[in-house]
Amino acid sequence: MAASDSDSEDDFVTYGTPLEPLEEDEPLKKPIRLQDQTVKDEKGRFQRFHGAFTGGFSAGYFNTAGSKEGWAPSTFVSSRHQKAEKQIFKPEDFMDEEDLGEHGIAPKEIMTTDDFSSKAKDRIEEKARALAALSAPIPGATILEDLVAAAKISVGVQLLRKMGWKEGQGVGPRVKRKPQKQRPDTDMKFYGCPLPPESSDKSENEDDDDYAPENVTFAPKDIIPIDFTPKEGLHGLGYRGLDPKQALSGGLRRGHFNVFSVGSERTSSLLGDDKHRRNRKGGVLGQAFGVGALEEEDDDIYNTDSLSRYDTTLCEEEPGDGMYGWTAPQEYMKKKKGSDKDVSYVGKILEGFTLASIPAAPKKVYQPPELPRDYRPVHYFRPVLEAGSASDQVVQVLLASGGQMTQDSQQTGRHQMNAAQRRELLGETALQGPSSVFDLLSSKDKERIKELKQAAEEKQAAAAAAAAAAAAAAAAGRVSAQQGLSSRFQAPAVDEALSAWQNISVEAASAFKPFEKNPEKQGRYDEYITQLKQGRKDALESSMNQHMTEWERGRERDEFIRAAVLYKPNNSTLACRFTRGKHEEDADKVDVPRDQENDIDDKTAAVKMKMFGKLTRDSFEWHPDKLLCKRFNIPDPYPGSSSVGMPKVKRDKYSVFNFLTVPESTMPTAQGVKPELSAQSKPSTSENASKPSEPGRRSRWDVSAQEKEGKDPISQFLSLARNEAAAEKQGSPLTSNEPEPGQKEEPPIEEEEEESRPPMDLFKAIFACSSDDKSSSSEEDSEQEEEEQKKPEEDPGLRQTTEPPEEDPGLRQTTEPPVQETLPDTIQVTQPRTEDAPSTHSLKPSQDQRNNEEEFGPRLPPSIPTGQDRSLSVTPGSAVHEKHKKKCKEKHKAKKEHKHKKEKKQKKKHKKHKHKGKHKKKKVEESSSSTDDSDDSDMEDSLHGLSPGELLKRLKCLPLTKK
Amino acid sequence: MAFPEPQPRKQELPRKLLRSLDCKQGAVRAVRFNVDGNYCLTCGSDKSLKLWSPMRGTLLKTYSGHGYEVLDADGSCDNSHLTSCGSDKTVILWDVATGQVIRKLRGHAGKVNCVRFNEEATVILSGSIDTSVRCWDTRSRQRDPIQILDEAKDGVSSLRVSEHEILTGSVDGRVRRYDLRMGQLHSDFVDSPVTCVCFSKDGQCTLSSSLDSTLRLLDKDTGELLGEYKGHKNSRYKLECCLTEKDTHVVSCSEDGSVYYWDLVQGSLSLSVSVGKGVVQSLSFHPTEPRLLTASEGSIQLWGEESLVMEEEEGEGPA
């Protein structure tokens, strides 16, 4: 039983794993229950299986997005300091590593896209499809599908096709091909059982029997020429480890003998299974057991040993056979030795070239020199000596020892040369600029200068001789000390200064004055420089003051030399390359218009002669703003220009002349110097004209009045009086009670200057303070204004300002007059008030605030004429007007009003003094209203009130012309 | 030549006083027809600007917002906006219908003498005694002017705008013409302070009045004197002048209370109409009809042809 059992055991073949032997004593192992059968992922975490149709394995934490701690949503926090950052989620954020893995839905691998992938890639798919086609009810269906399917050709293939490549061909130059015969070698060894040799061989050799004419070239075979495998490991180039096949093949012949060509194997593996398929035609196919649909087809392990795989000959193999694997080069080298070089291997040879029959001589490699035994690799620097400083012996020693020696300065580096030397070296021609100012002088001048120079030299020589004689004795004693001192500064510096200042043109000199603060010293320095220029070596000593101490002189010498070297003028060659900056960007400069409307005198004459046209017209370039052109629907006349307005040039900003308004140089303009103008036109005004400096600056608006008045004896008288007053004023500073007309005399020099507008800030400074307050004043304000305007009227001399009533009069006194000087006449303050006696009125304070304050141009006519009934005025604004225009008899009423307001203002006045104060105020008012616009009746009043001087007293007795 | 065609029949001048209106706004500093001549603006010394229908003699609207007396005004081409300027150094852009201040343009350093819209009312130009002409953009909210024409050496008293030119008259005795198209500034010297300038209707001449009691008609291109008109009195005040609607006559105010008409070609005084005792300070000629508005003291007067018959609706007759 037992034996039979053992026998029977031998006979049986066991499949599978045997169950564990059942032991009776042990309790039965419980089968693993279904709930205990767990699936773990690669990290050992459990995965629950939900079932194939309900989502597969569980994911996350119990199929939630949370964790064991729970799900913490990201809290939204956004504050001023910490803005919530914007999160952009990508699909990857919701994937785990499995999804990103090789088999996941988003593998992170670099893969060729379809465009670039070859067809060989989806071999499996093809196969599956082929199988499906076989089993399909209609066998050809999928084939048809393939045919119809959109062609997907990789880019490489497309390129190759463009180049003329056809499928099945190799890549490379076309070759001649000899018909290849494959003769089975009889000597061949067979391993294993030999297979019937007929079938596959024949099928292969059929192709080779084709007739190939001599002059026909063929495309190379479709092989991979050389396998450029990257070198790995530390082996030498070309080394391969022991090949078991080679080892097996034994040493039949010398060297290695390959039964199978290794290349073909590799080729086949690289090219895919094309060859295999071809080979598979004959012999036993290895598909007996079938191949799984998704399975890689196994190699035909049963069919590898066809005869065609054996190389029968070594040498007869065609060169283009493509066995260019790792063994190929050696084979070829051996094979083709002595015969023609294989061109195809090298590639296409250029036309007209052949491969060299004689190899190039190898480079001869020389041995490095042998070092002496006592060689020490340390460099020793030999001393460098100046030419002059070294003694002959030293030089010789140096030369002998190979040391260096600096040669003359001419041969030193370019930095030691000056521009002229370099120019000579480079062969450039000298620049054409005037090297000296003497070139520009006429011959006559030159002679004159020469004479002067001679005279000066003679004088100098005489003086020097005298000085030398006088100083001879003293000098003897000093010499030693001087030498001691002079040794303090280097001799080369003296020479340098000398050489620097020689050949310097006169104009370049004296540009810099280093000792400007000390004129004596500067004088000595200038002398020194001039002597340097003359090339005198003793320039320093001769320019020294003999009366100074040694120490002082030494120091001064030192300074002079240093200054001379430092402030050496540019070489003339250099100087003519540069020019002095014409437009300096300077904060002190200001833009002023380039073109000025000039020569008014000519124009005035032209106007007088009624020769309008060219004489009176000025035309300038003027650039409108781009936006202005746009608004006017006009193309920009100067498209490229960025400037606006008149072309500007720079000028000194703080020059007083910029603020002056007299436009003409020689000429009395219409504004400033009216008398001269009128003298031109009217001889009768000769008196006026005879006064060269008329003190008052008056507006142009006075023209006609002035001319008219020229005949008027009163006006002459008045202007005379005004001159006196102005002269008085000039002498003494302005006082508050002075009857100052507000017109300061212009210095006559100012008239020489060109007119230019003052900058805007000047206007601002004057006008800015009150502009805003005024503009929004309501009717109540107007009364207030009126009061305020009243107040300054009490100082009649100071009624000059255009605006600010808020300012207290004292301040105005001090600040304004200087401003006025610089004002253009646009801000001319005082105006001749009446047509018949403008000069008189200009002396008087302007009265009517409303009308007069800003009257710079032609006045506006009075709103209410003299004769008109005053009931016309209804609004408070006009009431104010009217008040000033009332006649004497009506004034009483007005005074009450005035008084009423005054009381508010003038707080110093007590109420108990009311009566008295009232009386005073009356007077003031009378005076203040005196210069009412075109109101002749006011004149009488003014006489009472105007305090200043005899001038106004005289006015009292003037006969007044009525309008 | 710049002269207009001679008229076949004698031009009828507005010599008949059609209406006189007391504006009740103090002195009337300026009176202006609007663009089509149906309305007029009066600038009062009581800070108000008033819109009238002069033919009917009705006050349509009062615009208040100026801080000082109003010196000049102009209406836009589409009658939707007004601009005015005054002694408060501001230029104001008004909405006609609502009477609201659209923009208050500050920047002038002195009182603003004259103000004009350009042809399309896209720019306001204002001339001031601060010697500058400022170009204000009405299309943007910018506070600063587009450009400042500060070539004048003295206050700018008068200003006109044509399609591509800006004509200014200044107290420095020059008439300046800024040609935007050519990018040039032409300055004509007339020696006497210019009180008023205007273009002729054909755009070939400029008329300027100056304080030497002379009006001069200058050729725009060459600056030559084409005509000189004298006889009136203008030596002190800023008086205005203009040309009639067909450029046949030159009209000017006078300080003797009259309006003077000269024949443009002959230069002879054709007519002088006495307006009142006071100075006639402002006038405006109807753009198409022979009508004239004058301002004297606190009232304005409308003048028409002899033949014209007015429909009387309300208001005062001739004073």
TrEMBL record, chain A:
The UniProt similarity line reads: Belongs to the GPATCH1 family.
Query: What stretch or stretches form a coiled coil here?
Result: 442-469
Q: Where is the composition biased (Polar residues)?
A: 678-691, 812-832, 839-849, 865-876
Q: Which domain of life is it from?
A: Eukaryota
User: Looking at the record, which segments are called Disordered?
Assistant: 1-29, 168-216, 667-963
Q: Where is the composition biased (Basic residues)?
A: 882-922
Pfam families from the entry?
DUF1604 (PF07713), G-patch (PF01585), HTH_TGH (PF26093)
Biased composition, Acidic residues: where in the chain? 1-12, 778-787
Q: Can you name one GO molecular function term for this protein?
A: RNA binding
Bias regions of kind Basic and acidic residues — which residues?
694-712, 788-797
How is this protein named in the record?
Answer: G patch domain-containing protein 1
Q: Which organism is it from?
A: Acipenser oxyrinchus oxyrinchus
Its gene? Answer: GPATCH1
Q: Which InterPro entries match?
A: DUF1604, G_patch_dom
Q: Name one GO biological process term.
A: mRNA processing
Segments forming domain G-patch: 152-172
Automatic annotation (TrEMBL), chain B:
Start and end residues of the WD repeats are 21-62, 63-104, 105-146
Keywords carried by this UniProt record: Cytoplasm, Repeat, WD repeat
| GO process terms (BP) | mRNA splicing, via spliceosome
Highest taxon in the source lineage: Eukaryota
Gene Ontology CC terms, in alphabetical order: catalytic step 2 spliceosome; cytoplasm
Location of the protein in the cell: Cytoplasm
Q: Which family does it belong to?
A: Belongs to the WD repeat MORG1 family.
Q: What is this protein called?
A: WD repeat domain-containing protein 83
